[in-house]
Amino acid sequence: MDQEDHRQLSLDVEEETFFKTKAWIPSMRFFKTESRRGNKGHWLFMGFCVLFTGIIAITLVHHSLWMSRELKTTQEYVKTLNISLTTNMAANRNGLQEKEEFAKLTSHQQASKENDFGQKFEAFELLVKNSSTEEKDHYMKLHTELQALEEKVYEHLKQVRSSLDVLTTEIKILSRKEGSKEGRAEPTADCPLNWQKFQKSCYYVSLIQKGWNDSRAFCFDMQSDLVVINNKRENDFIKQNNLMGALWMGLTEIHTDNWEWVDGTNYESNFKLWAQGQPDNWKGHRLFGGEDCVSQLWTGEWNDDHCNRLYYFTCEKAGN
């Protein structure tokens, strides 16, 4: 190969190398550009995933806190309701326990009284035995008269105390009633604030406890009277508001030995729902006297009770 051919071959090799190199460089640039684009998309996707996960986590935490607050509120409400029901049930159980304890106490006192009477009689018998016939007759007569006088004074004292108690409460009711007559307004079409409408009447359930007479006086001050229950639907309505254990109603035998509704409704022909064994006019409560006033128990049934017991109560007045 001559010199000219050798030079031409060298030029051909250089040219081929040049074009290969020029062709490779754009390919490398394209690959790097695509690689950068791929990495950028990958990081954008990862960032979106992290952001979405964070939003979900925040939402779950917020929902968890809300559920925790709601659960705490519900638990407090249930606890409050449970305390109220437990208190009312305990009050009813205490009433029954009080009767049982009084029955036991009465039995014990009766036995003690009989034993004491026996001892006194033995001493008296010994005194009479050692006396003359004339003295014996005198002692026996005196003893009989003293026993009769003691019983008579005791019965009279009970009647006086009972009459005085009734008279005092009646004077209080009448004075409040007369004092509120001038300012008494006719019922409006709608029930007042804190009163509930049922059928044609408005009802108010007290937030404080009072005796029967004071409860009625309180109702008078609000231009109303203790509730008169005329049918089962009305009794059920009162019952659903009775979370207190017992509510005074407008049924009594304070003035006579017969049950009377405060508005004059006939007792015999009107609706009744006495609890089993009631009315029993129980006298074992140590409050002096019998049971002349009526309350509705939490079961909806009625119970006669001593008028001085402190219960919640329901007032009623005309509505629409």
TrEMBL record:
Q: Does the keyword Disulfide bond apply?
A: yes
What SMART domains does the database record attribute to this sequence?
Answer: CLECT
Q: Which UniProt keywords apply?
A: Disulfide bond, Lectin, Membrane, Transmembrane, Transmembrane helix
Q: Enumerate the Pfam families for this protein.
A: Lectin_C
**Which SUPFAM superfamilies does this chain map to?**
C-type lectin-like (SSF56436)
Q: Quote one Gene Ontology molecular function term.
A: carbohydrate binding
Q: Where is the C-type lectin domain?
A: 198-316
| Cited PROSITE patterns | C_TYPE_LECTIN_1 (PS00615), C_TYPE_LECTIN_2 (PS50041)
* Membrane-crossing segments per the record: 43-62
Q: Which InterPro entries match?
A: C-type_lectin-like (IPR001304), C-type_lectin-like/link_sf (IPR016186), C-type_lectin/snaclec_domain (IPR050111), C-type_lectin_CS (IPR018378), CD209-like_CTLD (IPR033989), CTDL_fold (IPR016187)
PANTHER family, A to Z: MANNOSE, PHOSPHOLIPASE, LECTIN RECEPTOR RELATED
Q: What name does the UniProt record give this protein? A: C-type lectin domain family 10 member A-like
- Organism of origin is Erpetoichthys calabaricus (Rope fish)
Upper lineage is: Eukaryota, Metazoa, Chordata, Craniata, Vertebrata
